[in-house]
Amino acid sequence: MPRSHSGGRHELGQNFLTHKPTIKRIVEITAATDGAILEIGPGDGALTGPLSRLGRPLTAVEIDEHRVRRLRKAFPGARILHEDALRADLASAPVIVGNLPFHLTTPLLRRLLRSRNWTHAVVMTQWEVARKRAGVGGATMMTAQAAPWFGFTLHGRVPASGFRPMPSVDGGILEIVRRGPPLIPIAERAAYEAFVKRVFTGRGADLARILAAASSLSVREARLLLDDVGCPRRALPRDLAAEQWAELWRRLP
Asked: Rounded to whole angstroms, how far apart are CA atoms 206 and 194?
């Protein structure tokens, strides 16, 4: 295939999904949702084909102009857009599906979590990203910041051999569901995110001291509050559940 004006295969960060059990699983998860579908980075159409057979409106965003032409011929019933997913309108459909370019996973996830209207997202990311976003082994700051508005579920690990060309790491299927209603009002999101950042980046011998430094609480008050919301004395910020973060935020003076 000719080189894209946006860069070659590796410059575009494309590792095309070929693992049939994973393709089937992603489509099964998507089939359990409702509404139009927006696919990010369809590549050669491994997911586009089975998604189009769900009988729902389907739009795909692809940066490689040569693949756009091939996809339009192969799937005339789908709307294929020649766009960069980092600039495309991700709020145009209630369901987002995609094999995210591994080198763009974090900016795409950040953009997705900032976009309104969509209700479900089923995305392929690096295994470590999917595992951490789902809170396996402890949540990241980004997950804790988004948790009052989104739920994250890990649906399995995908071997590196299930991609072409084969990346250096495995992949993971991550489902993101927008909460309704949210645990914290959306108007408080910026302030809440700043609070979470202070806790994650704060210093202290234990979580109570970190929380005290990140708020106007005394260490004693912070310790009592953590006990009230069910946080173990030796817990770290990564160990808190979404409901615990929300309760801490609601009860701060």
From this structure: 20
Q: Does residue 117 have a known ligand-binding role?
A: no
Residue 218, Cβ neighbours under 10 Å: how many? 11
- Which element (helix H / strand E) includes 43? none
84 is in an annotated binding site: yes
Delineate the domains of the chain, giving CATH numbers in brackets. Answer: 16-178 (3.40.50.150), 186-251 (1.10.8)
CA distances to 15, 93, 137, 182 from 146, in Å:
27, 20, 17, 10
Contacts of 117 (CB under 8 A, 6+ apart): 91, 92, 94
Residue-wise pLDDT for 218-248, tens only, equals 999 999 999 999 999 899 999 999 999 999 9
The 10s digit of each residue's pLDDT in 79-136 is 999 999 999 999 999 999 999 999 999 999 999 999 999 999 999 999 999 999 998 9
Confirm whether residue 62 is marked as ligand binding: yes
Residue 41 marked as a ligand binder: yes
Query: Is the backbone of residue 230 left (phi > 0), alpha (psi -120 to 50) or beta?
Result: left
- 99 labeled binding residue: yes
Give me the percent of the chain exceeding a pLDDT of 90.
Answer: 91
3-class secondary structure, 167: coil
Q: Which residues contact 196 (CB under 8 A, 6 or more apart)?
A: 141, 144, 145, 237, 245
Residue 241 CA to its chain's centroid (Å): 17
Instruction: Give the pLDDT score at 89.
Output: 94
* 81 annotated binding-site participant: no
Query: What's the predicted TM-score (pTM) here?
Result: 0.91
